[in-house]
Structure formats: structure tokens, C-alpha cells
Design a protein that fits this description.
This protein is an alpha/beta fold and 116 residues long. The protein has helices at 13-29, 61-81, 96-106, and strands spanning 4-8, 32-37, 46-48, 51-53, 86-91, 111-114.
């Protein structure tokens, strides 16, 4: 029924639960499991005089890679614990929804699994 399953994963408790479901489905359907993660690096407030202002500074490539690698490694370990190898991992910058849909297309995903 499913050949390619895409897991949208951010490391949250909901994502960890979604990984367990996706791993179970991958085993049941002998499907490949792919992971997509879009790191969302927090921008700390910058104080200017008596005002607090948020600067819209996009995260650097290094920030994205560091955050993404941490989450990817966590997902790989959790998938192995569930008895599944990830066929591919995708760490992308930008809007998460667009990245999930683009990766679903790229991996020919039959199903997208994510937390809430």
C-alpha cells in the first residue's frame, strides 16, 4: 500500500511519536522511510536603549547545519531503535510546509507522517 513514507521531524515529543508510527508503517508495508527537517533557529531579542526589538536576521548556513545535524542524528538513532533505517534525510532552510511538500515530491512519498 505504501512504498515511500516521508516523516516531517522537528525533534519534539509529537515528532518522536510520529516517528514511531512511521517506523511501524514502514515495517508493515516494507516501505522506505525518508526524513525532512527544516531547522527553525530562534532569533534572540536585541535591546536598543529602553526598547526591545526583534531583528529579522535569517539564521546563518552554519546555524542551520548545526541545528539540522543534531535533529537528524536524533531521528536516525530513534529510527534504529524502532528497527528501521532512514533511506534519506533532508535538512532544508525556508518555510517548513513548502519543504515538506517539495520533499514528498522528490521522494515520491505515498504518505506524509508528522506530529501535530
Amino acid at each position: 500500500m505504501f512504498n515511500n513514507i516521508l516523516l516531517a521531524y522537528d525533534g519534539s515529543e509529537h515528532a518522536q511519536n510520529a516517528l514511531k508510527v512511521a517506523a511501524g508503517l514502514a515495517k508493515t508495508h516494507v516501505a522506505t522511510l525518508h526524513l525532512v527537517h527544516t531547522p527553525q533557529v530562534d532569533t534572540p531579542p536585541i535591546v536598543i536603549g529602553s526598547y526591545v526589538s526583534m531583528l529579522e536576521v535569517p539564521p546563518s548556513k552554519e546555524d542551520i547545519e548545526k541545528a539540522g545535524t543534531f535533529i537528524k542524528d536524533m531521528a536516525i538513532a530513534e529510527a534504529k531503535a524502532e528497527g528501521v533505517e532512514l533511506a534519506s534525510t533532508h535538512i532544508l532552510a525556508g518555510p517548513p510546509a513548502r519543504n515538506i511538500l517539495d520533499t514528498a515530491e522528490t521522494t515520491n512519498a505515498d504518505l506524509i507522517v508528522m506530529g501535530r
